[in-house]
Amino acid sequence: MKNISQEERDYLAEQGKESNEKVVFDLSGNKWQFEGIRPDEGVKVGFHELNFDITGDSFNWSFAKVPGDVYTDLWRAGRIEDPHFGRNSVKAKWVPENEWWYKRQFDVPKTMFDKHIQLVFDGVDFGCDVWLNGKFLGSHEGMFSKFKFDVSEDIRFENLRFGTNVLMVRLHPAPRRYSQVAGRKPAWHGDYWVSLPPTGIWKPVYLEATGKVTIEDTYVKPVILTEDSARLDVEIELKNHEDAEREVAINIEVEGENFESKTYQVQQKVKVSKGTNNYEISLDIDDAKLWWPWDLGDQNLYNAKVTVIEGEDTLLDTTDTSFGIREVKMVHNPGFTLEQVENPWTVMINDRRHFMRSGTWGGPPDIFMGRAHPSKYVELIRLAKECNFNNLRIFGWHPEEIPLFYKLCNEAGITVWQDVLPLASLSLPKDEEFKQAVFAEAISSVKAQRNHPCLVLLEGSEELFMTASDPEHNLEFVNALGEAIKPYTPLHFIPSSPLSDEVGLNLGFKPNESFHANDLFYGEGEFVMEEYFPSLDFAVIPELAISSCPNVESIKKFIPADEVWPPGPSWGHHWTDFDALRTLNFEVLGDQSRDGLEKFVEATQISQGVIFQYALEHFRTRKPKTSAVCICHYITFAPDMKWGIVDYYQEKKLSFDYVRKAYQPVLVTMKHFDRRWLPGEEFKGAIWVVNDYYKSFKDCKVTIKYLDNNKSVFKVETFDISEIGGDSSGKFVDVSCKVPGVIGDKFYTEISLVDADGNSISENDYMLLVADKEKDRKELRAIGLEAFETKEKFGWASYFRYYPSLGGEDGVPEADQKMPIARGFE
Prior knowledge:
The protein is α+β, with helices and mostly antiparallel strands. It is 22% helix and 32% strand. The strands form eight sheets. Strands 25-24-23-22-21-28-27-26 form an eight-stranded parallel beta sheet. Helix 8 links the parallel strand 23 (415-419) and strand 24. It is globular, with a radius of gyration of 29 Å. The chain starts with 5 loop residues before the first helix and ends in a 32-residue tail after the last helix. The model has no long low-confidence stretch (mean pLDDT 95).
């Protein structure tokens, strides 16, 4: 507010008085510029001193968008090639060697004059320093915690063509060691991305103009009293930015957000001393509409408007908080003793069992947040519901999500099972400063998310014990993390996943808690699905991983044309595990399917789908002893040849439909413990029905058709089912047929379940093989052993093992002489 005449000051004061409102000015958008420079050089040359000259020293800076990220801004400016294409990502490894400066020039609304003005950053990845109009405001580290600066005395109210205020943000060089920032930033490596650590201003930046008392947090805690009434205990955190104590009135108005309701209101006068003050105010809702997952009820959402008023009508601050009235409780899974399973694993929502049909949200939709457009979130949540997911799991390889994700889940009735922070697969540092920084980030994260009714279960970490050099320290750390967040959320906390592997058992966890059912993939022919999955006896399966290729047209978008087929090195760079795909193809189809791009891609997707379907249906029939199963993954954040049933371009794979069938809320399933049968053998199966609804179905009929290799029906059976109970799983009838055809053929079953009026309740189908299972088992194991021999030579993570010319093998032309082709696909 410098350099303003008295006349201008009087005019601005009048503008501010006329607007008795909170004023928010969004600084997000396309009006940013950015430039990079060697670390610690920006301040030396005076980047932080750049002013509002119309051209000036930053005229040749590149344009940028916030929220976003450095790599996307560099790509759009033409300074790097698309990191997702080919092997371009390794060519951009110079980017995190620099610090990156972001500039935003702006004028502010006149109605902000004479108010308390805060500059708010919702999230910066990972560390930054901030200047406004040449004044250093402060620094921040931690990707998930919001931070603010009081800029009331620093904002300029003069007007120029491009704005008189200059905001400068120095992004520190991106971290290079995950262990040093774990919990405050997700890992930028894994088994579908390895090259670049993201960095950028990934959430909105804005100015807030209020009174001198601000609302820092609102937490609505619903308590269900009766079937149609509830009490809301509303915790409100106020901050008084002045020394003097003030008396204010807190007004709360609650009404339906997505349905019509009356307005519930309460007001309380309080005294606010300097700094942070906490209050709890209650009000009753006498016609409560509950929030449910989509397969249990409606997604009723409320809005709580909190207003702080001084005197008769001077508004100091106001906020709106969306929430749902629902209660989450955890109970022990029936069928296990406390010596087998110590944790309660069954999620009860409003006293109804919520069997979680889940998939890991391997997101955000793009590892580079500048490309994770809101429209992608909308489409991916829509597809999740189309696929019959009622839960998404965010585990510790991935960040907490943006508010839009939770809003969409609230509206869709999809619950969220989430690691509090990204802590995955490492030994955590042991210094106290690191621990306290992570705990502070966790508390900030929990407070930001806890009003979302979709959030139902919290975990502390992902695979934090199984691969760590010091699992005892990691266990102590995450147990302390659980204690740190306990005052801020009533949600149940599990220290890690899995708990019941070998390391978990050595740490004292019970033998049947949680298990990652990934051995079929990593075993490469050591197991077959019909034996492996039925052998697992656990309360929950948080991870079940099978890979596949994306669609052919998607592959052509990120693999260079001369590498598409036969598969060149870019396939390896994008995590194609050819040996695993070969074994899975052979297990499911009896053929490695290497003779052509379309055939290979289709085979991988069918194999992924068949295995997912078999496993998911098996674990669902264990209900209620098993209470959740989660595929790994639903999506991933980069184009890859690895996990996901929806690819990076939001295209459904063939495996999507297999999961959709397996996740039907009412599922008719045919249990079968062999997929390979000799000609003329008596195929045997059993019809089960799983019902996740709480309503029952009476006088139903189930019909099973048997089809031969040509898809011609050769037998039909129909059975009566008197009643399918709500929230149930049970066997109804054994089925059988003579196996048709000859070795090498396939045969099929199609099953339909209809209600008393003939309406379809569930449909399902299966593909089976006419084959010698003993002979095929030996061939499958031989493929896997060959793969393990190659891994012994090159290491399991090096894709050079698939490309002799990249592995420097003697007598093989180098890559400059001949395009490398994957071994076995020449």
